[in-house]
């Protein structure tokens, strides 16, 4: 596939923890919503457990193993989930932005 350039690799290393934080905020907001929805305690517990299981799988898919060989795919997946701001995306090189858009089928 494509080789990520050093400046774009540095961008990924900078935005990776920020995107992870946004992902966790999203999962926690869903848990907060469920915990106050008025269902029985047991039903809320089961729903929160499912949210955590699904969130854990998704977190692993999006954020585990940030290697250069997977950097473009990782950036594309993070972008597809709305976890990369426009400013962060714009800080990538035009080549990398194009590759991400191509991977996402938007290019």
Q: What is the percentage of strand-forming residues? A: under 5%
Q: What is the typical, i.e. mean, pLDDT?
A: 94
Number of domains: 1
Number of helices: 5
Radius of gyration: 16 Å
Task: Describe this entry's structure for a reader.
By secondary structure, the protein is mainly α. It is built from 5 helices and no strands. It has one domain. Helix content is 73%, strand content 0%. α1 packs antiparallel against α2 and α3 crosses α5.
Describe this protein with a few key phrases.
elongated; 107 residues; mainly alpha; 5 helices; single chain
Question: Short description, anyone?
Answer:
The chain has helices spanning 6-35, 41-63, 71-80, 86-90, 94-103. The protein has 107 residues and is mostly helical.
Give the arrangement of secondary structure elements.
Elements: H1 6-35, H2 41-63, H3 71-80, H4 86-90, H5 94-103
Helix pairs in contact: 1-2, 3-5
């Amino acid at each position: 596939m494509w080789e990520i350039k050093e400046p774009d690799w540095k961008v990924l290393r900078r935005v990776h923890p920020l995107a992870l934080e946004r992902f966790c905020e999203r999962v926690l907001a869903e848990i907060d919503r469920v915990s106050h929805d008025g269902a029985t305690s047991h039903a809320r517990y089961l729903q929160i457990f499912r949210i955590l299981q699904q969130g854990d799988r998704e977190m692993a898919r999006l954020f585990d193993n940030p290697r250069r060989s997977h950097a473009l795919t990782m950036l594309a997946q993070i972008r597809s989930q709305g976890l990369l701001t426009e400013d962060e995306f714009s800080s990538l090189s035009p080549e990398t932005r194009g590759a991400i858009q191509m991977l996402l089928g938007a290019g």
